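Section 3.1: Structural characterization of target chains.
Under the original work plan, the team committed to producing a structural model for every single-chain target entering the pipeline before any wet-lab resources were allocated. The record below documents one such target. The sequence was received from the expression subgroup and is listed exactly as submitted; it comprises 106 residues.
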Amino acid sequence: MEKEDFKKAEKLFNATQKVVDSKILSEKEKEPFQKINAQLAGVLLSSWLPRDWGRKIIMLIILLLAVFGALKIDVLFLLLLLILPIFSPRMMGGLIMFIGRIMGNK
């Protein structure tokens, strides 16, 4: 997804969230907005890589450290690669959905 499309989806998500949070509409009137909001949340969390450059750079440093450490020092440095999914919006979204299902939320 391009940066411009992501910004539009994020703006629409924030707008629909305000409608859902407002006390003006009844629960039945809020249902379509909640469905749209859930779909937009999925779109926003569909990217494997983070949006900002700071997190991408941190991921690259961890990757280089793991590979260099595994080649020069010890193979256990490859365990650092297990940290990388923490930076992925898609992985974190999937983890949160899994935890929600375990806790009993639908």
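The mean pLDDT is 84.
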